[in-house]
Amino acid sequence: MNEEYDVIVLGTGLTECILSGIMSVNGKKVLHMDRNPYYGGESASITPLEDLYKRFKIPGAPPASMGRGRDWNVDLIPKFLMANGQLVKMLLFTEVTRYLDFKVTEGSFVYKGGKIYKVPSTEAEALASSLMGLFEKRRFRKFLVYVANFDENDPRTFEGIDPKKTSMREVYKKFDLGQDVIDFTGHALALYRTDDYLDQPCCETINRIKLYSESLARYGKSPYLYPLYGLGELPQGFARLSAIYGGTYMLNKPIEEIIMQNGKVIGVKSEGEIARCKQLICDPSYVKDRVEKVGQVIRVICILSHPIKNTNDANSCQIIIPQNQVNRKSDIYVCMISSAHNVAAQGKYIAIASTTVETKEPEKEIRPALELLEPIEQKFVSISDLLVPKDLGTESQVSGYLKRVITRLHWAMSPDKFQVFVIFISRSLYPVPMMQQLTLRRPVMTLRTSIRG
């Protein structure tokens, strides 16, 4: 460990592992350490079930009805992958998919008026859906045709709309869409958590809806994918990539000190040894003095012995509760997977409800989601802080937040491989990764038959 590295990475969350993998591939000397004895950090999948009970300080052992503890791989944070999204493209390009198997999520649902409705995935489902009335369906179809034909580089597809200036509110008004349809479109298709997008230029929202449609078209049932054995497989896949190209990994390594000299990082001290570096990348928990709290997220992991009601007995699904339906400022998400994904004992289901905390009673805020899941066999509640950096880290070369790190990542890319421009996987950690532009220098291969329906 007493060596010099180009980069030291602290924490083995998904974002940190993506970075160490990419930089190792491009010839950088990388040391990757984690204080935990397992991969994943906040993105870990906990196994066996007994460890989850200990983590949340639940007294006693899991009941016999839960099956074998080793049959469980419980995600601490819910997330589904968009089938045609940038994260999937990155997995394909780096060939990390060789280490992973995926399964298509069976359905996407939206909450309206105290009930849940399937988000239509075919034209026949759209015509039969009770989400909209007959005339609304016609107007909505016209809107979707416009979105499908839209190309921000072709003014002929704009139809009088300026994508850089026209607000999304004005676009909805142009197509005469009602409030319920607006809620459904903005929150279940474009996947916004608040209504702030309504008064912003419409280009991004239209592209989000296109992404949803393109992802849905790939596998039919829903636009979402989920890795077998849990989300913890994703960081491990990138960790393997890094190791193959010479990256050094050390788990269960307590970090004693981040060594600074003249305001710039020069190394990390662990168990009396010092590893020197030119740059340090870490999750916010390693640099608490360099980040500040801007909010909180509540997550409730629920173990069920039944599928969620009114989901056609789906063994996996996402339910979105739009803010306006429950008089909130931000949406509530429910992400459900099951034994079909090798994350639970036979006949068991895991549902995770999450939302941004807005009051002093966060468990009361999440109640509309929990009511959809009843009866609940066991629940595990966590409230996590949302942290942002106090500075960009350009002077200190300490980057404690992914958004600040990857804007500078182009230095690690060689021209014959690919370049990354501003990739940001949201640390708000909701089910769907929010990512910006990824530019590839070679065609993206098709996803292998590891995708299972």
TrEMBL record:
<dbReference type="Pfam" id="PF00996">
    <property type="entry name" value="GDI"/>
</dbReference>
<keyword id="KW-0963">Cytoplasm</keyword>
<dbReference type="GO" id="GO:1902018">
    <property type="term" value="P:negative regulation of cilium assembly"/>
</dbReference>
<dbReference type="InterPro" id="IPR018203">
    <property type="entry name" value="GDP_dissociation_inhibitor"/>
</dbReference>
<dbReference type="GO" id="GO:0016020">
    <property type="term" value="C:membrane"/>
</dbReference>
<dbReference type="GO" id="GO:0016192">
    <property type="term" value="P:vesicle-mediated transport"/>
</dbReference>
<keyword id="KW-0343">GTPase activation</keyword>
<comment type="similarity">
    <text>Belongs to the Rab GDI family.</text>
</comment>
<dbReference type="GO" id="GO:0015031">
    <property type="term" value="P:protein transport"/>
</dbReference>
<comment type="function">
    <text>Regulates the GDP/GTP exchange reaction of most RAB proteins by inhibiting the dissociation of GDP from them, and the subsequent binding of GTP.</text>
</comment>
<protein>
    <recommendedName>
        <fullName>Rab GDP dissociation inhibitor</fullName>
    </recommendedName>
</protein>
<dbReference type="GO" id="GO:1903565">
    <property type="term" value="P:negative regulation of protein localization to cilium"/>
</dbReference>
<keyword id="KW-0333">Golgi apparatus</keyword>
<keyword id="KW-0472">Membrane</keyword>
<dbReference type="GO" id="GO:0007264">
    <property type="term" value="P:small GTPase-mediated signal transduction"/>
</dbReference>
<dbReference type="GO" id="GO:0005096">
    <property type="term" value="F:GTPase activator activity"/>
</dbReference>
<keyword id="KW-0597">Phosphoprotein</keyword>
<comment type="function">
    <text>GDP-dissociation inhibitor preventing the GDP to GTP exchange of most Rab proteins. By keeping these small GTPases in their inactive GDP-bound form regulates intracellular membrane trafficking. Negatively regulates protein transport to the cilium and ciliogenesis through the inhibition of RAB8A.</text>
</comment>
<keyword id="KW-0007">Acetylation</keyword>
<dbReference type="InterPro" id="IPR036188">
    <property type="entry name" value="FAD/NAD-bd_sf"/>
</dbReference>
<dbReference type="InterPro" id="IPR000806">
    <property type="entry name" value="RabGDI"/>
</dbReference>
<dbReference type="GO" id="GO:0005093">
    <property type="term" value="F:Rab GDP-dissociation inhibitor activity"/>
</dbReference>
<dbReference type="GO" id="GO:0005794">
    <property type="term" value="C:Golgi apparatus"/>
</dbReference>
<comment type="subunit">
    <text>Interacts with RHOH. Interacts with the GDP-bound inactive forms of RAB3A, RAB3B, RAB3C, RAB5A, RAB5B, RAB5C, RAB8A, RAB8B, RAB10, RAB12, RAB35, and RAB43; binds RAB3D to a lesser extent. Interacts with DZIP1; this interaction negatively regulates the interaction of GDI2 with GDP-bound RAB8A.</text>
</comment>
